[in-house]
Amino acid sequence: MKNYASLLLLAGVVGVLSILFRLNRTADPLVAGLTSLLSPAASIVLPSSPLFANLTRRCVGAYNPEIAAVVRVGAEADVPLIISYAKQNGRTLFVGSSRHGWGASLNDVRDAIMVDITPLSAVVIDSAANTVTVGGGVTIGRVVEALHAAGKETSAGGCDCVGFLGPTLGGGHGRLQGRYGLMADNLVSVRLATASSEIVTVSNTSHAELFWGLRGAGHNFGIVTEAVYRIHDQPNGGIDFSADITYEPEHLEDIFAALNAFSLEQPVDTTVFAMFVPRPGIQPFIALSFISSSPATALETLNRAFGHLPHTSRTESLIPADHTNRLGAFGVGTVSCTNTVRKNAYGVSLTHYHIPTVRGVFTLFAVFIAQNPEAHESVVVFESYPVQAVMAVPEADTAYPHREEKHLILLLAVYPRAELDGLVAQWLGSASGILHTESGFEKPAVYLNYAHGGEGLGASYGYEEWRMEKLKGLKRRWDPEGVFNAFHPIPSV
Ligand SMILES: Cc1cc2nc3c(=O)[nH]c(=O)nc-3n(C[C@H](O)[C@H](O)[C@H](O)COP(=O)(O)OP(=O)(O)OC[C@H]3O[C@@H](n4cnc5c(N)ncnc54)[C@H](O)[C@@H]3O)c2cc1C
Q1: Which keywords does this chain's UniProt record carry (predicted)?
Q2: Which of 263, 268, 341, 492 is placed for a possible disulfide with 178 were both Cys, Cβ 3.0 to 4.6 Å?
């Protein structure tokens, strides 16, 4: 009897709580005001929902915008409505796609409405026109897979789970850039939802100055709902050659000398990454990934450039191009897409490898890992992409400012506890600091999408006065109130 009474009491409490919860939801001014405006497929997800954590979790967790609600768009028309609603109600707007971006400005975002654009993920190929039209929230993996199935390809980043537009708007590096240029160089036009809640088409012939800005500083001016890219016939039957090689660290100087020599005549089809990889109790080893989209000549190129270096292990494989992001480069693309441990990342752009500095970075990394064994999944990646088609585009033609860079360095700290944030930032700061001093650039340079935000605007957007004036002018024209200021914002004055 006593048990029965307790059960009744418990049921009563649960009932009252659930009524209060529902009242609270319908009373939420955001839900009440916005729901009726949106398309039927759209939804609003509040922090009380079990879906909220998954929709807001970020890959690089040291940078964490404060989100009050997620609005999942159901159709393109929802996007300008959300922008207008946020402005009218004085709410901060935040654009969320695949959530791999990082940068200090993300930590300044408070109480924001996040526009989740991932439902806009259609991929439509026009083989005759050699274009692909993609939704603004599509991932790299979806685009690469669809193009591969059609015997086509275009420049794309090396991790399938990353958004297609996020990289593009900052430039967009990938293995095919030697042939086709940056991802941004392949952009034909976009549909952009602007701060004034209109949708405009932006291309070389429509709002051409804005098109210039979108290709390198594009996170600043609106939300891309759809984009058209140039595509190309696969020249290799859709098969890549991949080699994964490991070395002991005493060969570092020879490896980076070989990388410097290789980059002087790097074939258009070949990308090489060198990585410092921790191992328990001893110094990190050096891993080299060599990926070529010309399988017929790749082995000869590999042996000529790196065959003289005494390796510890070496495997070679032929991979269908739509699997290369997952299987090539020691499978690092798969690990990056599934690992949910806390991360922080800094980038540096270089014109060449200054070998004593690379040794200095190795030593700093080895000490950092020895002192913080919990950070054993951290890695330093030295990315050497082919640059022929990137450099063929004049620097003034797009907002992308660093076309003469040959190597992108990614310092990636992976660690389990936020308490290590300070130590991690110290390591990232000192390693990036020495790289910047011998970068080959007069002043620090960093790929915008690898920047942590403390480098200064010039480092990511270029130091030329005309360039910054042009960007500020575009900001005044297209986003005077700073609606799109969450990601490496350009000031309007
Ligand atoms: C694991 C990993 C692998 C990476 N590999 C590469 C690579 O191979 N090549 C490369 O160039 N970069 C690479 N990057 C860097 C990448 O370019 C940036 O992290 C980029 O910001 C990720 O975009 P996203 O859509 O995934 O992330 P999000 O965090 O969702 O987007 C980042 C920012 O981009 C803007 N944005 C995204 N989509 C839109 C849109 N449709 N309209 C308007 N604004 C938009 C928003 O301002 C948003 O804050 C990688 C990053 C990670 C973490």
Answers
A1: FAD, Flavoprotein, Oxidoreductase
A2: 268
Q: Compute the residue count for the chain.
A: 493
Summarised one tens digit per residue, pLDDT across range 254-285 is 999 999 999 999 999 999 999 999 999 999 99
Distance CA 434, CA 469 (A): 30
Q: Give the number of the atom of ligand 1 that is nearest the alpha carbon of residue 60.
A: 53
Residues whose beta carbon lies within 6 Å of some atom of ligand 1: 59-60, 95-101, 117, 136, 157-159, 162-163, 165-167, 169-170, 172-174, 219, 223-224, 336, 449, 486-487
| Residue 246 near residue 312 (C-beta atoms within 8 A) | yes
Among 5-9, 173-177, 445-449, the least confident range: 5-9
For residue 303, the one-letter residue type is: N
pLDDT digits (tens, 9 = 90+) for 105-154: 999 999 999 999 999 999 999 999 999 999 999 999 999 999 999 999 99
- Rounded Cα gap, residues 470 and 456, in angstroms: 17
How many helices (H) and strands (E) the chain has is answered by: 17, 18
> What is the token pair recorded at 193?
């939802």
The pLDDT score that the predictor gives to residue 188 is 98
Q: Report the share of the chain in percent with pLDDT over 90.
A: 90
Tokens encoding 249:
């660290």
User: Looking at 73-77, 314-318, 328-332, which range is the least confident one?
Assistant: 328-332
CB 176, CB 460: distance < 8 Å: no
What gap in Å lies between CA 413 and CA 424, rounded to an integer? 7
Q: How far apart are CA 134 and CA 176, in angstroms?
A: 19
Helices marked H in 113-251 — which ranges? 140-149, 165-170, 177-180, 208-217
User: In which band, very low, low, confident or very high, does the pLDDT at 340 lie, cut at 50, 70 and 90?
Assistant: confident
Pick left, alpha or beta for residue 301 (phi over 0 → left; psi -120 to 50 → alpha; otherwise beta). Answer: alpha
DSSP letters for 239-266: EEEEEEEEE-GGGHHHHHHHHHHHHHT-
Cα–Cα distance, 214 to 211 (Å, whole number): 5
Ligand 1 centroid from CA 478, angstroms: 21
Give, using CA atoms, the residue closest to atom 19 of ligand 1: 101
Q: Which residues pair with 382 in a beta bridge?
A: 274, 409
pLDDT value at residue 190: 98
Overall average pLDDT of the 295-323 stretch:
97
Q: Decide: 166 and 98 in contact? Cβ < 8 Å.
A: yes
Residue 26 has pLDDT above 50, yes or no: no
The three-point CA angle 428-432-435 to 5° equals 155
Q: Is 330 helix (H, G, I), strand (E, B) or coil?
A: helix
214: which 2 tokens? 């979108």
Question: In DSSP terms, which residues pair with 381 in a beta bridge?
Answer: 275, 410
